[in-house]
Amino acid sequence: MPAESAAPHTLDLAISGMTCAACAARVEKALNRLPGVSANVNFATEKARATFAGDITAENLIAAVRKAGYDAQAVSDAGTAALRAERALDYRQELRLFWFSAALTLPLVAQMIFMFGGAHDDLLPRWLQLTLATPVQFWVGRRFYTGAWKALRGGAANMDVLVALGTSIAWLFSAVVTLESLHHHVYFEASAAIITLVLMGKLLEARARARTSTAIEQLLRLQPQTALIERDGELVAVAATTLQIGDLYVLRPGAAVAVDGIVIEGRSTIDESLLTGESLPAEKTAGAKVFAGSVNVDGLLRCRATGVGAATALAAIVRLVEAAQGSKAPVQHLADTIAGVFVPAVLAVALATVAYWWGWRGDFDAALVNAVAVLVIACPCALGLATPTAIVVGSGRGAGAGVLFRNAAALERAGRIDLLVVDKTGTLTEGRPRVINALPFAAAERNRLLTLAVTLEQGADHPLAQAIRDFVARQGIAPLAMSDFISTAGRGIQATVGGSAVALGSPDFIASLGIKIGTEHFAALPLGGTPVAVAADGRALGLLIIADQLRASSPAAVTRLRTLGVEIIMLTGDHATTARAVADAVHITNFRAQVMPADKAREVEKARAAGRTVGMVGDGINDAPALAAADIGFAIGAGADIAIETADVTLMRNDLNGVADAITLSRATLRKIRQNLFFAFVYNALGIPLAAMGLLSPVLAGAAMALSSVSVVGNSLLLKRWKPGA
After folding, report:
1. Whole-angstrom distance, CA of residue 383 vs CA of residue 678
2. Burial class (CB within 10 angstroms; exposed 0-12, middle 13-18, buried 19+) of 478
3. Which of 5, 182, 231, 450 is the S-S candidate for 177 at Cβ 3.0 to 4.6 Å?
4. Residue 67: CB partners within 8 Å, gap ≥ 6?
5. CB of 643 within 8 A of CB of 661?
6. Which among 407, 401, 378 has a CA at the least distance from the CA of 278?
7. Nearest 5°: CA angle at 158, between 348 and 17?
């Protein structure tokens, strides 16, 4: 009997040694060559996410990365802080190296400036120029030689190859001229300035990239390190990591919530703005949920832990944001394809430049200078950073506004929605229905109506059942025993109670059982009220009228979505009268009532087949078929529920405006990606020909290359200006 295949695992790796998009492509290819491995490498975050099964281990993945010429280490929650500290130390060391390089390079560049002013003789003795340029070339620039050797050993070429080759040619030619006392110009200032400028660009790029990941940093800082528990009548501070599910802990005013929990005593308000984007504090009383990372504003609360460690809502949000930031948007595939062949193509252009200027024109100096300029200006860094930096910033801004994208593909697709299917309950309405009236058809049967209703709903967990139980409990009526229970999903319930055949459900469900309800009973229904009928022994006993208050923000949110060019259809399983009342209140003209979950999915599939890009908004559970069928599914108000792990987009606030925020953020992010790709393509399309034609000096080429990546990252950082509600 064959062994059962092992479940797939996912591992994040921190990759070191990458200098450009070609490096990322090389690492990704090396990982994907392993059997059963599917990996994405993000150059902006310097991480790889690999999904693997079978006999593959983390050691195999790390070995593959090292064989490709780079290094890797597994990323864990415990090791994230250490990794950040290590990168901060590397940055400080690189900064000191840059200042040393700049000090040696400045005299060489200053001499070149004087030469532009008309001086033709060297202002510095050539032996001094050699002395200044050599440490820059081989000590400061050793990183380029190391990176180039590793890349070539792995069978690829990257930016390090271009920089090392270009500067080495310039330095070697100048050294030979100096040592042999030949009558040629020397280019020590070019080789030294290129290395210094490239190093400066990498430092600016690293600093800018660090700013793109501030959303994760802010989320991680929300988690407090300690919690207060009661011990021997006193409050004692303990490490938050020691709390277990079921433990009791105390929240003082101003304290951050250490773990997810449920309030068992007390009354207060909790600031959940950094988790949900909701500016107003939420009121909490007994039975309410509290989430790790939120802040207790005023009262004292006693809570029972319901989620600790990796099981908290905050931890799930961090995982989701990290996954989104580490994934690839479909628009990035073109850049990846180009980056994979970019360096060999540049080397070919450099050789062609030498052949033209030296072989055809007979000008060796021009051939040398122009070939070096081609090698230096051609860098795929900007191309590799164009998409991932925008994705990192965009998904981070979304997290801060309570809009969580599952991956980069979801962030890209959200902006293309032109049709939005919305549920009614919990989406347009508050999702907290309550019974506002009981209408027995015979006054003497009121108690029987309520008793049978609560009996049939005693085991159900949907909101309508809870509303009925709460209402009947306030009347002091208890449920009876029942048998032969049958539930028809989305329609009603049947059972035997005290020897009577009892049914509860929508009026249409009761009618399908052959039990008639006179139309006169519906004439006095309140606007927006949902009727639930109860029948026994083939006779209708009466109606329970359930109402769900419309969200105050729904009308404005629908109007905002419409101005974004999104058509809205409301599909609900509710009664037609109720559906029409809600649709009219929010100005939705296209709606269907009494639609079953499976029918919602069919409506979504029909719209997609007609060429529409369809979004679906629901609670993530009852609307699961339609959410799965849509191009992108929005789980509204999911909070700490499992939906934040499965929905395409999770809206932490119970507000349809979150969908509009997701659409506007997606469109803003896509605009930045297109701008970045345009700048990266135009930079190389103009820079390489200008360098080959001798219209760009190597030093200017080095400066342009260094600033190209910084400009792309800086443009992505402008996404931080996006605000929810825009």
Report:
1. 9
2. exposed
3. 182
4. 30, 154
5. no
6. 401
7. 170
Report whether 21 contacts 10 (CB < 8 A).
no
Find the mean pLDDT for residues 126-133: 90
Helix axes 188-212, 159-180, angle to 10 degrees: 160
Catalytic residue among 423, 631, 648, 661: 423
3-state secondary structure 613-672: CEEEEECCCCCHHHHHHCCEEEEECCCCCCHHHHCCEEECCCCCHHHHHHHHHHHHHHHH
- Residues 376-399 have pLDDT tens digits of 777 667 777 788 888 888 888 888
Q: Which residue has the tokens 């009236």?
A: 437
pLDDT score of 328: 67
pLDDT surpassing 80 at residue 600: yes
Q: What confidence tier does 85 reach under pLDDT thresholds 50, 70, 90?
A: confident
**pLDDT tens-digit readout, 333-356:** 666 677 667 778 888 888 999 899
Mean pLDDT on 55-60: 86
| 526 DSSP assignment | P
Catalytic annotation on 423? yes
Burial class, 360, CB count within 10 angstroms (exposed 0-12 / middle 13-18 / buried 19+): exposed
Structure token pair of residue 78: 């415990």
Q: What does the alpha-carbon distance between residue 518 and residue 543 come to, in Å, rounded to a whole number?
A: 12
CB 689 within 8 A of CB 645: no
CA distance 259 to 355: 68
CB 619 within 8 A of CB 598: no
**Mean pLDDT, the chain, whole residue set:** 82
Q: Quick one: fold of 403-429+550-665?
A: Rossmann fold (3.40.50)
Residue 190 has pLDDT above 60, yes or no: yes
Q: pLDDT tens, 9-51? A: 888 888 888 877 778 888 888 899 898 888 888 877 788 888 8
CA distance 567 to 559: 10
DSSP 722: -
**pLDDT confidence of 304, banded at 50, 70, 90?**
very high
Contact predicate 45/32, CB 8 Å: no
Those residues whose C-beta lies under 8 Å from the C-beta of residue 642, and which sit 6 or more positions away, are 620
CATH class, 434-547 region: alpha beta
Closest CA to 393 of 722, 667, 646: 722
Give the 3-state secondary structure of residue 306: strand
Asked: is 224-311 a CATH 2.70.150.10 domain? The reply is yes
Angle between helices 58-67 and 21-32 (to 10 degrees): 130
- Binned at pLDDT 50, 70 and 90, residue 640 comes out as very low
Percent of the chain with pLDDT over 70: 87
116 pLDDT above the threshold of 70: no
What is the crossing angle of helices 21-32 and 381-400, to 10°?
80
Q: Decide: 378 and 349 in contact? Cβ < 8 Å.
A: yes
Domain ranges of the chain: 9-82, 224-311, 403-429+550-665, 434-547
Q: What angle do CA 48, 54, 55 make, to 5 degrees?
A: 85
CATH of 9-82, one of 3.20.20.450, 3.30.70.100, 2.102.10.10, 3.40.50.300: 3.30.70.100
